[in-house]
Amino acid sequence: MPAAHLDAFLEMLTAERNAAPNTQAAYRRDLEEVGIFLAKRGKDLTGARSEDLSAYLSMLAAAGAKPSTAARRLSALRQYYRFVVGEGWRSDDPTGVLDSPRLGRPLPKLLDEDEMARLIQACVALDGAEGARLTALTELLYAAGLRVSELVALPLAAVLRDQPFLVVRGKGSKERMVPLNPSAKAALAAYLDVRSQFLPRDKKGAPIKASPWLFPSRGAAGHLTRQRFGQMLKEIAVKAGIDPARLSPHVIRHAFATHLLDHGADFRALQKMLGHADITTTQIYTHVVSGRLKDLVARHHPLANSVSSGPPDQSAGPLHRPKDDAAKD
């Protein structure tokens, strides 16, 4: 694969689509992996044929890759070849005859409200600066439904003013406002009192310089990484009595969305708070909420458990329910 073609494509993503560095890096990884496969067949990415790409997708399936992985790679290839054709580097798009893998629509993993309360309490129970930081991170994530990349890269300036809203810069550098509840604001205030303990330091232990990040770190990024925060959540999950396999930063974002809907939030408002460009992305939560509603009706509706070959008993009105069912509630 001519490296210049890939570099030009990635530059286009940044210049024309305002792609985030993480997005650009993901495209590079996916396309370079396809390029490695093609090189073994004596081909490069720009000159690949449809059958070469089909062989790559078949190899992924045989290796046990998830359909979502194959779909993501195919999407990257389609965008790449659209760019290549537009630049005149080839006249045809070899992905045009390829079928997308069939995808199921998995429901997001969830924590219920009691589990979220236990998780936050476990964070609060941690001593010292580490406990204050983890509490602030978790409270912020649950209160505002942030993406983990948005959370760890929050600038310090975003929270210095005592305001009821947090301004977040999300995908495509688009800004949105999300409300902060009193609990999250209190956790932030407690963390800011100890934030200086996480600043990079010299050999004598003195802070090297001020940091623009809300959650500074001594690592190369200058702020806490997504991976480290994920590890911290796994560790605290055990203390909260939650299976670590069920917990990640994204699960807390899902909890934020689902719990809001459970309490009557509007879909359009939720879409704005989550930073979804398309309402259909937000509507994945309808499956979660509608499932709970079905269960609610099955357990509590007056006629849900009545079994009769004839009309319902009218002696106590059209919504009469048996005494046994009433006792259960």
UniProtKB/TrEMBL annotation:
Location of region: Disordered: 303-329
InterPro entries in the record: CB (IPR044068), DNA_brk_join_enz (IPR011010), Integrase-like_cat_sf (IPR013762), Integrase_catalytic (IPR002104), Integrase_recombinase_N (IPR010998), Integrase_SAM-like_N (IPR004107), Recomb_XerD (IPR011932), Tyrosine_recombinase_XerC/XerD (IPR023009)
Pfam families recorded: Phage_int_SAM_1 (PF02899), Phage_integrase (PF00589)
Tyr recombinase domain sequence ranges: 106-298
The entry's keywords: Cell cycle, Cell division, Chromosome partition, Cytoplasm, DNA integration, DNA recombination, DNA-binding
SUPFAM superfamilies documented for this protein: DNA breaking-rejoining enzymes
Main location: cytoplasm
TM annotation in the entry: none
Compartments it resides in: Cytoplasm
Active-site feature positions: 147, 171, 250, 253, 276, 285
Domain Core-binding (CB): 1-85
Entry similarity comment: Belongs to the 'phage' integrase family. XerD subfamily.
NCBIfam families given in the database record: PRK00283.1
Assembly and binders: Forms a cyclic heterotetrameric complex composed of two molecules of XerC and two molecules of XerD.
Function according to Swiss-Prot or TrEMBL: Site-specific tyrosine recombinase, which acts by catalyzing the cutting and rejoining of the recombining DNA molecules. The XerC-XerD complex is essential to convert dimers of the bacterial chromosome into monomers to permit their segregation at cell division. It also contributes to the segregational stability of plasmids.
Name this polypeptide is given: Tyrosine recombinase XerD
Protein source organism: Dongia soli
Gene (name only): xerD
